[in-house]
Design brief:
The protein has 15 helices and eleven strands. By secondary structure, it is an alpha+beta fold. It starts with a strand and ends with a strand. The protein binds protoporphyrin IX containing FE. The site of protoporphyrin IX containing FE has 26 residues, from helix 9 and helix 14.
Length: about 400
């Protein structure tokens, strides 16, 4: 058994699409990830994904971005604007959790600060669960703690959410409720189809916890990095300052460029279920682990140019190359939330009014349009509880 590292876009694409390569990234994180969609394979995966695809459609994304997200973003950012400062790591997770909760189907009936704080605490545990393989402390103790948190989350948030949705579905079946008045979230989709694709309570709990963290953590990490990259860019490109503080398309491009250079998940990993030979000649034996090194794949000079290593929000790309590289994966596990998170590429046919920007660009826009700049008295710090390069603290001030 060997580790085979993949470093070219062609090999990476072929691996992502190969049916004999099975998810391997979350083996240590099974307390949350055991049977969630990104960890299923073959028919089981296809069944679950097909259901969830019903929700993750462009018309739903437009509805989220136009009608449902703006209020959540405003409510989350307002207290920070009043204070004139924010710590971005915390702010980003709060904001993205509020948005991900809506998508996953985690309600907050009380609507209090304390309730949101408790959900945030659960989310932090789920993130630790999924990334347990990179944890630097006592892994067994952490796993037990996370299982307890999952059960407490179920009692406080999931159970009431299930009861409410079952009542709504009953009303819908009796003709007392319109389809359009059903919540548009993952929990509803799974409950609505439980006769066709049954799930145990534990599986349902893990799936919703996973959606909460898949939506929140990736997007929140990206948010802090985009802001950081733009601050750094402006130090050497003062001519772009005005665009950074007013141009929504520039900010979306900066987001895509950041996701390319610093993928939320720097590697993808797969177990080989049989012997495989890639078109390039690379041989993979049964039981080998294939590791797709996204940081290298996404810096391919043939696709991104000689300055592929650099952050450049004004980068011109050849046709057919996506600006985020392979950071959203491809093939069967390709990110279901890609358009929701990063929007669509703005091209010559796009207009700002009709464009889907994506929730990370929209959050970046909210911060820059309010004059976000580095806090001169408090430099950013890295997070030393994990071997992954995350910021621990990123203080900013608002100058508008
Ligand atoms: C910047 C933001 C995001 C990034 C970089 C990202 C990245 C990824 C990547 C790389 C994968 C594939 C993993 C693999 O092949 O092993 C993935 C899968 C997935 N993502 Fe995202 N993601 C983001 C945002 C979101 C959001 C907002 C949601 C939910 C609303 C989401 C839900 C999912 C789900 C459910 C899967 C599993 C799909 C499947 O296995 O069929 N992601 N994401």
């Amino acid at each position: 058994m060997a580790d085979i590292t993949i470093t070219t876009p062609e090999d990476a694409r072929e691996c992502y699409r190969h049916k004999a390569l099975r998810q391997a990234l979350y083996d240590a994180g099974e307390v949350v990830m055991e049977d969630v969609v990104v960890n299923l394979h073959g028919d089981e995966h296809r069944q679950r994904r097909r259901l969830e695809n019903r929700l993750f459609r462009r018309d739903t994304f437009f509805e989220y971005e136009r009608e449902m997200f703006p209020q959540i973003i405003q409510d989350t950012v307002n207290p920070y604007l009043e204070e004139g400062r924010a710590e971005l790591v915390d702010f980003g997770h709060q904001l993205m959790m509020n948005l991900a909760a809506l998508t996953a189907g985690v309600d907050r009936p009380l609507g209090t600060y304390e309730e949101t704080d408790r959900l945030y605490d659960y989310l932090t545990s789920f993130i630790e669960g999924a990334t347990l393989g990179f944890y630097t402390g006592d892994v067994d103790a952490k796993r037990t703690e996370i299982q307890e948190k999952l059960e407490a989350f179920d009692r406080e948030f999931l159970e009431p959410g299930i009861e409410l949705r079952r009542e709504l579905l009953k009303k819908f079946e009796n003709g007392d409720l319109d389809e359009k008045d059903l919540p548009r979230d993952v929990l509803l989709v799974l409950l609505r189809n439980e006769d066709k694709v049954p799930m145990t309570r534990e599986s349902l709990r893990r799936e919703i916890a996973f959606y909460l963290l898949a939506g929140a953590h990736t997007s929140a990490t990206a948010l802090t990095r985009v802001i950081h990259n733009i601050f750094k860019w402006l130090e050497t490109h003062p001519e772009d300052r005005e665009r950074a503080y007013s141009d929504k398309v520039f900010l979306q491009r900066a987001t895509h460029e950041t996701i390319r250079l610093q993928p939320s998940s720097p590697t993808a990993a797969r177990w080989a279920l049989e012997e495989i030979q890639l078109t390039s000649g690379i041989k993979i034996l049964e039981g080998d682990r294939v590791v797709i090194d996204l940081e290298t794949v996404n810096r391919d000079k043939a696709s991104f140019g000689d300055d592929a290593e650099e952050f450049n929000p004004n980068r011109e790309l050849p046709d057919g190359v996506s600006p985020w590289g392979l950071s959203f994966g491809q093939g069967m596990h390709a990110c279901i939330g890609q358009d929701l998170a990063a929007g669509l590429v703005f091209d010559t046919n796009s207009t700002e009014e009709d464009h889907l920007f994506g929730l990370v660009p929209v959050a970046v826009q909210t911060l820059f349009l309010n004059g976000c700049s580095p806090d001169p008295d408090n430099p950013p710090e890295m997070d030393d509880s994990t071997t992954r390069p995350y910021f621990g603290k990123y203080p900013v001030i608002f100058t508008k």
